[in-house]
Amino acid sequence: MLRGDGKGRGQKAEDIIMETAVSSGERMMIPMKKNDEVELEITDITDEGFGVGRVRDGSGTGGYVVFVPGAAPGDVAAVRILKAGRSFGYGRVTLLLRASELRTDPACPVFGRCGGCALRHITYEAELQLKKKWIADSLRRCGGTDAGDFPIYSAGPERYRNKAEYPAGTGPDGRLFFGLYAPRSHRTVDVGDCLLEPEFYGDIAAAAAGFCNRRGLTAYADGTGGTVRHLYIRDARATGEVSVSLIVSSPSLPFADEFADAVTAVCPQAVSVSCIVNDRPGNVILGDRLTVIRGRDTLTDVLCGVEFRISPMSFYQVNHDGAELLYRTAGDFAEAKAGDTVLDLYCGAGTVGLCVAPPGTRLIGVDIVPESIENARENAALAHRTDAEFFCADAGSAAMRLAGEGIRPDTVIVDPPRRGCGEEVFEAVKAMSPEKIVMISCNHVTCARDISRFAEIGYSVRRLAAVDMFPRTAHVETVVLMTKK
Q: Do both 280 and 354 map to the same domain?
């Protein structure tokens, strides 16, 4: 995972830990070798879920850093070195000598083999405090900002996901199954019932796999062929509606009606069953050709009292209750009122803007995905929002165009992808000079970098909050209010 240093460069998490050690005067010991056995006390945990321990040198002042998946701060463990570098390495626990007080039963039979969760081995209370620490450390190190004390909100850690993208795999018996990727790989693990998702998702996955195996459809792999790439499920928590899509590499799905029958037999609340064609090589999940097999092409959900229709192609938060916390926090920060102009960059299906900007404000939303903009317009119509407009463009170039047209929003909302805001966004915000910027970020490192860039054009942090949208994983959302200095 790359971490920005506030100057446009990137660093790996382990490099930052090493820099911190060097800057604090610690002296690195002689490197370890592969298969060495060491006893480690785990003192920290990275934002990839790796425990951090040090093999101390004879003086007691230095330390060779070892990153250990599945270890918790406070553990004392025997660790075998699996990969050794000059100043740090990676290992695995061979014997837990003393368990941390932060540890808990993961309650998942595939934890560690599946890459879905990174923090299921520690208590949820410890996880929330850890995520606050990650955000504060990033803001201090990469953004030059003291976060102070700030709240972290959560709607709960289990069964929260309303979307699953299951890659197709092939079991030892040659039969196709749908699972999740192993950590840091594209090897598919048969998960069964994932504790982050509703139980009925497993029923749908089993029914879809049964259909594929009956009809001889095989799992796709780059360079080796195969038809079935992913099973894609979404559910609407407010209405109970479900959509199911099979993503294939072939021009169409053979026996499509039989697939729909298999899905609706185990999930009668499925209002949309479709096929998505993705014939491009690589790991991109969604294709650009969707065919509805049964039902309609959208789900209906309700967030913060606003009704939304969402297509499989549209961005929509994966945690419904968490999203309500997130958007209410953003709305509290924005304090948009009648007569204000709110510009929502990276708007998706319009969910953020329509929840944050109340009727009577002028809302302008921008997104690069055509299906998202189509959904956003439908959602504005559902809400009878004649004061909302959405158009399809890259966020940066659209913002520059609006600035060139003399539009001066009172508030700009930015909810960028993990890589953060594009440079054009900073230039456009500088030209439009809004009073407030509300940033929602799914990556606290690029969030800190972007805060630093906004500071360069005259904005400083006024309020900060975190929302744990992705419990038991190494991800957390940050909401920041910036105003003119």
A: no
315: its two tokens: 């961005």
Q: What is the pLDDT of residue 32?
A: 85
pLDDT of residue 213: 98
| pLDDT higher than threshold 90 for residue 448 | yes
Do both 410 and 474 map to the same domain? yes
Amino acid at 393: A
Question: 182 and 252 share a domain?
Answer: yes
> Does 126 reside within a domain?
no
Residue-wise pLDDT tens digits, 378-426: 999 999 999 999 999 988 888 888 888 888 999 999 999 999 998 989 9
> Catalytic amino acids?
442
Handedness of CA 275, 279, 282, 288 (dihedral sign): negative
Spatial CA neighbour of 398 closest among 419, 381, 418, 373: 373
The closest of 363, 437, 432, 428 to 399, measured between CA atoms, is 428
Q: For residues 86 and 15, what is the distance between their CA atoms, to the nearest angstrom?
A: 12
Using the 3D structure, point to which of 254, 276, 302 is the last residue of a domain. Answer: 302
- Nearest to 231, CA basis, from 295, 169, 143: 169
CB hemisphere CA count around 240 (13 angstroms) = 3
Number of independent structural domains in the chain: 3
With H, G, I as helix, E, B as strand and everything else as coil, classify residue 257. helix
Element (H, E) at 166: strand 163-170
Provide the β-strand partners of residue 51. 45, 68
**Pair 145, 178 in one domain:** no
Q: Is residue 122 part of a domain?
A: no
Q: How far is residue 16 CA from its own chain's centroid?
A: 22
Give residue 458's region: left, alpha or beta (phi > 0; psi -120 to 50): left
The answer to whether the beta carbons of residues 82 and 34 sit under 8 Å apart is yes
CATH number for the domain harbouring residue 217? 2.40.50.1070
